[in-house]
Amino acid sequence: MSKCSVCGCDLGNVPMCFGSQSPASFMVKPEDYEKRVLENDDQCIIDDEHYFIRGHIEILIIETNEVFIWSVWVSLSEKSFEHVCENWESEGREECTPYFGWLSTNLPCYPETLHLKTSVQSQPIGCVPLITVELTNHPLSIEQAEGITMDRVHQIIHQIMQH
User: Fold this and answer.
1) Helix residue spans in 11-117 (DSSP H)
2) What are the C-alpha distances in Å from 65 to residues 4, 5, 27, 150?
3) Which of 46, 98, 134, 151 could form a disulfide with 121 if both were Cys (CB 3.0 to 4.6 A apart)?
4) With 80 as the cut, is the pLDDT of residue 43 above it?
């Protein structure tokens, strides 16, 4: 059994994917939801003018074959969103040119992550898009580019559990 590097407790199987609520939960009052929001597990449209898609930011865990995943929402232009939807069930969609998007999830454990520039790459049918944060000096961008240690994963888990 592995021990947490932060608190020393037994970890068992460490969760390697954490997700966030739909952007609608932050932008729309519950009583207005039905009138203003169209969404499923992977796509969200608010007021017929704000378009979002869910994808994964993958971060390599150094010295392992594992990946830590943030399941996040990214805003797309209407044109990009329509293209994603048109190709949602198309074989070979992973060959599409990546889309520009703005990260629309504020992740714990980092300074502000809302509105970081991203690239959204479609994946084969049945897989959510891969999200790459533009390379900057933001800690999320650096961690995605360079990877993280298992100790960092433990720190992230503790911060998430405290929220």
Assistant:
1) 24-27, 33-36, 78-86
2) 19, 19, 37, 11
3) 98
4) yes
Output b/e per residue, 129-149; b: 16+ Cβ within 10 A.
bbbbbeeeebebbebbeebbe
3-class SS letters over 93-145: HHHCCCEEEEECCCCCCCCCCCCCEEEEECCCCCCCCEEEECCCCCHHHHHHH
In the three-class reduction of DSSP (H, G, I as helix; E, B as strand; rest coil), residue 70 is classed as strand
| Amino acid (one-letter) located at 79 | K
Q: How confident is the model at residue 139 (pLDDT cuts 50, 70, 90)?
A: very high
Q: What pLDDT was estimated at residue 17?
A: 86
Residue position matching structure tokens 């390599």? 60
Q: What is the spatial distance between Cα 68 and Cα 144, in angstroms, rounded to a whole number?
A: 10
As a whole number of angstroms, the distance between CA 87 and CA 96 comes to 9
What is the arithmetic mean of pLDDT over 129-137? 97
Amino acid (1-letter code) at residue 9 = C
The sign of the torsion formed by the CA atoms of 159, 130, 132, 88 equals negative
Mean pLDDT within 139-156: 95
Report pLDDT for 160: 84
C-alpha gyration radius of the chain:
17
Please tell me the pTM assigned to this model: 0.88
